[in-house]
Amino acid sequence: MLLLLPPSETKRDGGDPARSLDLGALSFPTLTPPRRATLAALRRLSRNLQAATLGLKLGASQRFEVDRNRVLGSSPVLPAIERYTGVLYDGLDAQSLDPAERSFAAGSVAIASALFGLLRADDPIPAYRLSHDSRLPGLSLKTHWKGPVSAALAEVEGPLIDLRSEGYVALGPLPDRPDAVTVRVVTEDAGGQRKALNHFNKKAKGEFTRAVIRAGVRHGSVESLLEWAPSAGIRFVRSGDRTLDLIV
């Protein structure tokens, strides 16, 4: 089973000063060539402050994001699950996981990335700024990543549980198979009507991921996950052949 998470716009600073970005240390090695191309395009963009501000959709107070991108090759690295911050990652709270839970996460959690395509939870990465809708010179992120990421996901054995946002799904759609499902976070009123959540869905996704990690059960099927969920206080309902509603 692999849980697929979105990244976040915000990144934690710092990391191991003795290590820097090594593409050979990242999971999904078939993505190394497109990673090199994306890094090269981002470096070209970052040479021009005005172009980078526009291409990355940055505000006046976010020049530091361009500075980060300029030193990607020499910046310290952190495990991806610690690098990303924000509501989802607050709910996951990776830094409080014990060693056994971190080991489980390393094998069961992947994070989408506009820069790296797809990462395992413990892949060491620097702080950077690049979003699914960023504009790079001579490179369309959707066209660039769609085929390689989808192919990498198709090679993963077992269920794929997709918690990514729509923008990142577009960079690598799920393979067409019964055990590849999308999770939608919803509320349910007294009459049973469900409504999708926007901002607050991130917290629910983080907390769900944390619950799976802490339980340490490697589910071999979507049905196994659904049978386990009530024991963790999680309520799922199938809303389609390949869609699960997480009701909060």
From TrEMBL:
Task: Read off the InterPro entries from this record.
Answer: YaaA
Q: Return the Pfam families for the record.
A: H2O2_YaaD
- Please give the name of this protein: YaaA family protein
Name the source organism.
Answer: Lysobacter korlensis
What lineage does UniProt assign to this protein's organism? Bacteria, Pseudomonadati, Pseudomonadota, Gammaproteobacteria, Lysobacterales
